[in-house]
Amino acid sequence: MINKIAVITTLLILACIGLLMAIAFHFYGKTVSQEKALSSLTEQKNEAEFITQSQALSVGIFNQISGATLNEQKNNQAASQQRQTVIKTLLETAPCAVVSVPAAANDSLLNHYNAVRQDTRDANTGQSAGAVRPLTSTR
C-alpha cells in the first residue's frame, strides 16, 4: 500500500510540476509576443515623430523664405511708389506730348529695371535666362 501511495504522490507532484511548467511557458510566450509588439509600436512611433519634426522644420523654413520674400516685395513696392511720385512731379511741369522724358527720370527707371532684373537672375521662372535683355539708355 505504501508503494501505491508513494507512486500516486510522485505522480501528483510530477503533474503539479508539469502544470506549473505549462503555465510558465504559456505566460512566457505571451510576454515575448507582447514585447515584440511593443518594440514594433515603439519603432513606428519614433518614425512618426521624426517625420512630424522634419515636416515642422520644413514648414518653418518655408515660412522664413516666404516672409523674406514678402518683405522684399514690400520694399520694392515702396521704392517703386517713391520713384513714381518723383517722376510724376518731374513730368507735371512739362507737357509730355511736346517734351521728351527727362534724363533723370529715364536713368532712374533704367537703374531700377536693371536692379530688379539683377535680383531675379537666380530665380527659376521656367524661362530661359536670355528671355529678358538689359536695356541701354538712348541718349
In short:
The chain is an all-alpha fold and 139 residues long.
Estimated helix fraction = over 70%
For the largest beta-sheet, the strand count, sense and barrel status come to: none
Number of strands: 0
Structural class by sheet pairing and helices: mainly alpha
Roughly how many Å apart are the termini?
A: 134 Å
Which overall shape is indicated by the principal axes computed on the Cα atoms?
A: rod-shaped
Number of helices: 2
Q: Provide the gyration radius in Å.
A: 42 Å
Task: Provide mean pLDDT, rounded.
Answer: 81
Order of helices and strands: HH
Low-confidence stretches: none
Please indicate the percent range of residues in DSSP E strands (runs of 2 or more). Answer: under 5%
How would you portray this structure in words?
The chain is mainly α and 139 residues long. It has a domain at 43-112. It has two helices and no strands. The chain has helices spanning 2-92, 103-119. Helix 1 runs antiparallel to helix 2. The longest helix has 91 residues, at 2-92. 0% of the residues are buried.
Feature tags:
mainly alpha; 139 residues
Topology:
Elements: H1 2-92, H2 103-119
